[in-house]
Structures are given as structure tokens and as C-alpha cells.
Amino acid sequence: MEKILIKGGRVFDGERFSFADVLTDGEKIEKIEPDISLDADYIYDATGKTVSAGLVDTHVHIKRLSSDAFGINAEMSCLPFGVTAANDAGSAYGDRAFLDSIAVKNVVFVAQSLEGKELNFKFAEELLKKYGDKAIGLKVYFDKTISDIKDIKPLEAVCAYAREIGIKVMVHCSNSPVPMANIVRTLSKGDILTHIYHGGENTCEAENFEAFRIAKERGVIMDSGFAGHVHTDFGVLARATSAGFLPDTISTDITKLSAYRRGGRYGMTMCMSIAKDAGMSEEAIFRAVTASPAKALGKECEWGYLKVGRSADIAVFDYTDEGYDLTDKAENRIKNKKGYRCLLTVLNGQVIYRH
Ligand SMILES: [Zn+2]
């Protein structure tokens, strides 16, 4: 059994920071305590660095679950950024065997299809069967440019269907035909709204904040789904975060397009940098990429916490000259010479990425 010892880091356990060493034994975390002086097969000096559980991305699009033009290789788009578990948000292709073949731990939200203006639940049912217990929800698109949904009724039907079979609902909101406040009022505890700072029609502005606050209190998950500058208006982001409307989960919405065309090395670490520059505390940021998404995906017993006995999924970060520079559709530009960088990713007790 290989042992890895990560020494001297600032450890985020899913809730708070402390200083400790982390020791693995095979696939599990064996010890988290200060000054572990044991021989290990691999010793990593994390002095001045942050050590957390492997990150959890609430919103990705994996190749072979999405179309080849859109989906991206899961390992290449997650592991170098410290992400060891991800949710494919809108799966339509592939099957359970494919999900099991991906190194990144995963769950999926099944794409809910429309035939004209009618919801096609038969298609969703077939997909749910194909993915088995990896399928934890349905994904619905509220965007006039990509979906025929024009009012709130289809969402009410999808929510009723999802509640009946015990799964969640995730709503993509960009150019929404209805106010986002109506969407969040329709969602239940555990459902997810993504692209909360989208900046398209019916975006999140001051008049909605109260509706969002109430929905959050009821347990509706607010997901950033940044997508670089595509589904984020940095003006909306700045106004919302300064009014205290923070995301529960920070996610990439990474696709083949976003990974290579958005202001640098696009991935989870850039999303964390954006959140930091929007004024989120480091504790809030790390919670939003570990424990909160694990809970949102019903995986809090396996993912998102750095604890003894858990699977040895660990990531190490620094905050360094890892800049980014993004301009959104409204010409709001955000940039910083500094940003988060992933230095080490450990998956099931094996080093699988090292900067
Ligand atoms: Zn997406």
C-alpha cells in the first residue's frame, strides 16, 4: 500500500482551515494531524500551500455524454485543476459502462428533451435507465435561443415528475423567457439553478435578490456555472456579490469551447480566482468547490471533505502568477495577474497530476 505524506499545508477539511499534515494509506486517508513524522513513499512539501479534498465540479460537459463538438475529455479538463468528481449537466449519450470508465468520479443530470413545446418524459426515462444510479437529476434549459420553453409550466411538470421518482432538477438559465424569481420559486430543496449571474434577459438584479434569498433558505442550490464570460456578466456578478448574493457552488460549465477559448487556462482554478476577485472569502470559495457541491449532488458521504477514513482524493493549490483576463458580452473586463493554481492532485491514493 503506497503512502503519501503531504506536509506543512493549510488544510481545508470542507468546513474550515487549520494547519496539519495529511497521510494516506492506499486508497484512504489515514491521518490528518500536525507534524506527522513517518516515512512515506512520496512526501510533498505543502508549506505555504492550501490542501483540500479533491474538488467537486457541479457543472461540466463530458465528451461522449454530450456531442463531440461540445463535450470535453473529463480527465484532462478536471484532474489538472484539482477536480476529482464532477456532475455532467445535461447528459444525452453514452451509458453506465462509459461513466464507470471515467477516472473522474461522476454523476449525471439527464437532458430533459422537448418535442416542439411538449416535454418528452419517455426520452428522459430511457436515459435514466441507461445511466442507472449515476443519474441523479433532470436538466432543463430556460433560454429562448436554445429551447422552446416559453413559460413556467414545463418546469412545474418537470419538477412534479422529478419529485415523483425522487431525483433533482437543474435549471440552466441564460436568456430566460420568464423572470428568474419565478424559476427559483418553482424549484424545491436540493434543486439547482445554474448560471445565476448570466446577464441575459431576465437576469439576477436587485429586485430579485429577495426571491433568491428565500429560495436559498428553502435549500435551492445557487450554482455559478461561470462558463468563462459566456454565461456570466461580470457587472451582474459584482452587483450580486456586493449585495451578498453568493453562489452555493462554484462550477466551470467547462466544454470543448470554454476550455480553449476563455482568457487563459480555463478550469476550476480560474473560476475560484474569479470568485476571489468578486470578493468571496477563501473559506467560502473552498466550501463552494468541496463540501457544498458534494452535498448538492447527494455525495457528501464520499466527496468534498478531507477526513480520516475517506477516499484519498486530495488537491494542493497555491495563489500565484496564474492570471486571467476575461471580457464578457457587455464588455465588462475582469483580470488579475494573480490566481489559483493546482499543484498536485491525488485520486484514490495515487498522484495523478503534479505541476
Ligand atoms: Zn452547461
What is the fold's blueprint, element by element?
Layout: E1 4-12, E2 17-25, E3 28-33, E4 42-45, E5 50-53, E6 55-60, H1 74-78, E7 83-91, H2 96-101, E8 105-111, E9 113-115, E10 118-120, H3 121-131, E11 135-142, H4 153-165, E12 168-173, H5 180-186, E13 192-194, H6 209-218, E14 221-223, H7 234-242, H8 256-261, H9 268-277, H10 282-288, H11 291-296, E15 314-320, E16 324-327, E17 333-336, E18 339-347, E19 350-354
Parallel strand pairs: 1-4, 1-5, 6-7, 7-8, 8-11, 11-12, 12-13, 13-14
Antiparallel strand pairs: 1-2, 2-3, 5-15, 9-10, 15-18, 16-17, 18-19
Helix pairs in contact: 5-6
Bound molecules: zinc ion (ZN).
Question: Could you walk me through the main structural features you see in this protein, from its secondary elements to its overall organization?
Answer:
The protein has 355 residues and is an alpha/beta fold. The chain folds into 2 domains: 4-52 and 309-354, Urease, subunit C, domain 1, CATH 2.30.40; 55-296, Metal-dependent hydrolases (TIM Barrel), CATH 3.20.20.140. The protein has helices at residues 74-78, 96-101, 121-131, 153-165, 180-186, 209-218, 234-242, 256-261, 268-277, 282-288, 291-296; strands spanning 4-12, 17-25, 28-33, 42-45, 50-53, 55-60, 83-91, 105-111, 113-115, 118-120, 135-142, 168-173, 192-194, 221-223, 314-320, 324-327, 333-336, 339-347, 350-354. Strands 1, 2, 3, 4, 5, 15, 18 and 19 form an 8-stranded mixed sheet that branches. β9 (113-115) and β10 form a beta hairpin. α5 runs parallel beside α6. The longest helix has 13 residues, at 153-165. The chain is globular. The two termini are 24 Å apart. The mean pLDDT is 94. The structure holds zinc ion. Zinc ion binds next to loops.
